[in-house]
Amino acid sequence: MADIDxxxxxxxxxxxxxxxxxxxGLRHTPSTLSVRKMSIEGVVHNxxxxxxxxxxxQIASNKQFWWPSQVTEAEFHQVDGVLMLHDFRDPDxxxxxxKALDALVSASVPSVLVSCKSDSTPAxxxxxDYPEEVFSGVPSVQIAANAPDSQKRCIGTILxxxxxxxxxSSLTLATNHFPxx
Length: 181
Known about the structure:
The protein contains four helices and eight strands; from the N terminus they run βαββββαβαββα. It is of the alpha/beta class. The longest helix has 19 residues, at 149-167. 35% of the residues are buried.
């Protein structure tokens, strides 16, 4: 059975645990690493979701990056994709999200920008308020706590991008074997 290792990254308090809980249909708040068996294209995979705080993701000026220790210690063989969670009610975090996505895209890591808390008070801005290059052309999905299927759609979106990369099709983002230190 193949593993698909997905990092769920975002600032503190953005809703990473809630996202994972709703995306995987868990009854309790998840631990840092959650695993669910899923059938993708007729093959059962262990889909692992690992929480990672954006503040711990280190990026050098040349877009090289290092995974935080919780990623390297999570028995991930490689990081197959990243769900970048962002609360657009907090526009101060846009630069950090943009920089992280730029580094991930440069390293050919399939990524999806997830706009959280879209059902709460109106955000001062949304992903549509920024030029496409701010988020490196990464696809974005809005989620809401009152629409639990929105989290499942995000999982479907990132899994689709991972499978495209693995298949070597014309949309391939390159092989993805990263040093984990």
